[in-house]
């Protein structure tokens, strides 16, 4: 097995990062319980998609980090059965971080449906990653698994090198892996907690881009996962909001920097999305209400977000777009 696959030289770093995340989570959990306000307004959740999507209340569940999608009581909807591919990424090769679950898995599936082979980078959630791999292969495309911590430059370099070696090239990088843990009080953000958030969400994005760019030809694309928290802030995840704002700025700066190389750089800024990240962050009572505060009164499902990544990755649909942040947040409150 390749050294960058499950069980390889980066496996220990991945497991250490995962355990550090669980340690930070335990420290915050110990400061609970905390109260959460109920929804201020009534009314039903907006349904405007190809199928109906769930709305709060959700099961009261709190997952240990990094959060396994297979363990969620209410499974995220990621397979997009009504989405029809049309060759927008035919013959492309994509490397997606955090592709084992959530948005990353949904993006991997739609990329494959549009004709791309996919390298699935993840921390240590092996079972989830294998499910993503099987879904990509079901679409008739090749998939490889790469386990490690994106906060390590050597892993980023090895992940890119393995993608190029085994899949032939690299056309699309999706920076998506993230660490998030709420705090009750601002002073509860420890140095270790702050460091893990920045290392995963900023260093990881920088390292992956730095490793990928030398292998990307004109017409290639980088798509970042930003967040509504990077636009509006969030008092319970100050450090996470800070990193997402940094990702937005990184997107705009790198998008301009790489124009001479013919590489476009854009970001998607989702609002609340039903993925393992959130029940692995929030207490069970808060997870049950997740997304209910949006104007649409529900969180997005991963399959509702993934088409935006196809749009920004494809030279057929976004060849004149670079340095942009695309919010998908379920509506604005107007106040």
General description of the model:
Helix 2 (102-113) packs across helix 9 (302-313). The chain has a single domain (16-28, 56-328), classed as Rossmann fold. The radius of gyration is 19 Å and the shape is globular. The chain has 335 residues and is an alpha/beta fold. The chain has nine helices and seven strands. The model is unreliable at 34-41 (pLDDT under 50). The chain has a seven-stranded parallel β-sheet, sandwiched between helices. The relative contact order is 0.18.
The gist of it:
The protein has 335 residues and is an alpha/beta fold. The protein contains 9 helices and 7 strands, in the order H-E-H-E-H-E-H-E-H-E-H-H-E-H-H-E. Strand 2, helix 3 (126-138) and strand 3 form a beta-alpha-beta unit.
CATH superfamily: NAD(P)-binding Rossmann-like Domain
Name the helix and strand elements from N-terminus to C-terminus, one letter apiece.
HEHEHEHEHEHHEHHE
Principal-axes geometry comes out as: globular
Give the biggest beta sheet.
7 strands, parallel
Attribute tags:
alpha/beta; Rossmann fold; 7 strands; 11% strand; globular
